[in-house]
Amino acid sequence: MTEPAARNRREFPDRPWVGIGVVAFRGDSVLLVRRGRPPRLGEWSLPGGAQRLGEAAEQAARRELREETGIEVGPLRLLAVVDAITPGDDPARPRFHYTIIDYAAAWVAGEPRPGDDVTEAAWTTPADLPRHGLSPEALRVIEEARRLPGFPV
Length: 153
Known about the structure:
By secondary structure, the protein is α+β, with helices and mostly antiparallel strands. The protein contains two helices and eight strands; from the N terminus they run E-E-E-E-H-E-E-E-E-H.
C-alpha cells in the first residue's frame, strides 16, 4: 500500500466508485494510457477516471480524456458497464471497487500527451495491443467497440 487507507477515500471504500472510460479511435488505432496511481499503477489501460459529484457521465468522460491525454473526441456512444473489483485481505471488504461506464468515440483533435494521473499516452494498433498487457475486460470492451456500426473510424 503506497498511501494510508485513511488518506485515500477510494481504497477500502464503503461503496463502489463510478468510473468512466473511453475507447477512443483514430483509424483502427485505440488510445491507451499507462496508469500513474493505484489501482493498476504502471499498467496500461483505457483512459478514464472517477466521475465527480454533480457531473454527468458524458461530461466526466470528456474531462478525463482531456486531463489524461489532451485529446478531444466526437459524439460518445455508450458501450459497456464493467465491474472492476480488487480484492482485499478480507473477502467482504475489497481494496478497490469501481463500476466503470465505458464509451466509444472517434478522435477529432489533439495529440496524446500524458497528463493528470498517467505517465504515458499512445495510439496503439490492433497488432500492438498484446504487448500492453491489458486486462481481459479492457480487451473485450475494445473488441465490442470495434463491432459498433461506424467504428473504428
